[in-house]
Amino acid sequence: MKKLCSVLMVAVMSLSSAILPAFNASAASISNSSYPEALKYSIWFYDANKCGKDVAVDNVFSWRSACHTTDGSDIGIDLTGGFHDCGDHIKFGITNGYAASILGWSLYEFKAGFDASGTTNKMLSTLKYFTDYIMNCRESSTKYYYHVGDPSDHEYWGPPEAQTGSRTIKRYMGSGQGAADVCGLYSGALSLMYLNYKDIDPTYANKCLTAAKELYALGKNNPGVGNADGFYTSSDWKDDMAWAAMWLYVIEKNNSYLNDANSWLPSPATNWTMCWNDMKLAVAAVGASATGDSKYKDALTSSMTFWKNGVSTSNGGLKILDSWGTLRYTSAQCMLSLVYYKLYKDESAKSFAKSQIDYILGDNPANMSYIIGFGSNYPKHPHHRAASGYVGWDNWKSPAKNVLTGALVGGPDNSDRYTDETDKFTCTEVGIDYNAGLVGAMAGMVQFYCDIPQYTNPPVTPTPTNPSIKYGDINNDGEVNAIDFAALRQYLLGIPTSNLNLTAADVNLDGETDSLDFGIMRRFLLGMLGSLPYRG
Ligand code: ZN
Fold it and tell me: Measuring CA to CA, how many Å separate 103 from each of 43, 55, 281, 524?
C-alpha cells in the first residue's frame, strides 16, 4: 500500500534522533474553535504544490510562482498545470485524481463546514485548478495525458521555479494504454466538480460532466492500472471505476451505472482505509447515501470496528495503520467516520474522529501539531523542495526557509515520537493525497463540533421491490411499452379504465401512482433510463 521510493532508505526511526519537545505549546489550546483555522490552513497547503503558468494566481504563498511552464511542449501538447505530488515535482495522475476526488467530495459532503469557516471559495478555486488541469490534458475524447515527469526529478533539490531540464516522460490513457484507475478517479473528481459548480457556472460544470463521461468510457474500454514508474503501483482499477460510476449514478440516476459499480465492486469491505490505492470505503459511503443498499453500510460499520479494535494504538492515543505517512490514513479514516456520523448519527464515530484530529492538532505526548503552521510547535523540516528554498543538496537538511502552512506531515511513530529531519521522509514528507482526507475530516469537525446550522442528508431507505411485479407493465400484457404509457395517462386524467396494475405503475416506489410515475415512464420509453423501477 506504500509509495515505493527509488531510494530505499531505512525507515526505522532512531530514538536518538527523535524529539520530544519539553514545552506544551498547543495541546492546551485545542478547542472547537481550532477546527476552522486548521481547515483553512489544510486547504492552503495545495497552493504550495501548484504547478504551471498560473501558480501565483490566488496563491497564499509569496514564495511560489510559475514553474514547469513548458510541460508537454516537446510533444506539441500543453500539459501545464496541476499539482506536484509530495515534496517532489512529478505530476502523478493517481494522486492528482485521488486528491481532486476527495477534496471535491469533502465540499459536497460538508458544505456547511466550509461555509461556516469562510473557506468555500478557496476550496472551489483549488478544485478548479485540479479540474482545469485534467481537462487541459485532453488530446481527444479517447486520449488524456495523466503523468508528467520522470524519476530524475528526484535528483534535484531546489524550488520548482528554478528546475531546468526537460520532463521527458508523459503517459496517457487511451487505446491500448489502460489506466482505468486514473480514469475512475479523474471521472469522479469531474462529476463532483459538476455537482459543486453547477449553481455557480453551469457552462463549466457541464463541461466537467462531459469530460467525466468521456473518462468513464475511456476507463471502461481500457481496463488496467496506470504506469507511474514504480512509485504508485495501483493494485486494481475496479474500485476507482466504481467510484466514478457511483457519482454518475448520483447525478443521473441511471441504473446502468449502479450495475457497473456492483460488477466492479461486489464487496466494498476492506481492512484498510481510503487512500490513493483503495477507494472501496469511499464508494461504500457514497453508495450508502445514494442507494441505501445494506452492503455499503455494513462495509462502513465493519471498518469503524476494525479501526477501533483492530488497529494498534500508541500510548498517546494515535491509531497507527502503517508506519509510512501514518497520519494520512488516520485523517482519511476520520473523514469516513464523520461521513458515517452524518449518515447514521453514531456518536462513537464522531468522538473517534475528534480523538484523532485533536491528537494531530497537538493534543499528544509530544505537544506538537502535525499540521505545519498551526499552533506554535510544529515540524520545521518537511521533506519538501519548495519549502526548503534555494539551498541545494549541501544544505537540504536545514530548517525549511518557507513555512509550508497547512501541510500534514507523515507523523510520529508508535511511541508518539516525531523525527523532525528532512531525510526521514516516512515521517516528514507531505503530499497532495495526505492532505485530502485531512481537509474532509476538518470540514466535518467544523460542521459537527462548531456552532453552525446543521444540514443532513439522511440515508435513503428504499422500498423493497416486489420480484413478482414487472414494473411499468400497467396493462399486464408482459410488455412495457407505449400502451402502458397511454393507460397510465388515461388513469391520471381520471378517464375510467379497468384492469390496470397500479402497483406496477408505481415505478418510483413511493407508494403513489401519480405524475412522477408518468414522467419516469416517459423517460424510460425514450431510452433515458436504464431500467424500472427507478427511485430518482
Ligand atoms: Zn511545477
Answer: 9, 19, 15, 34
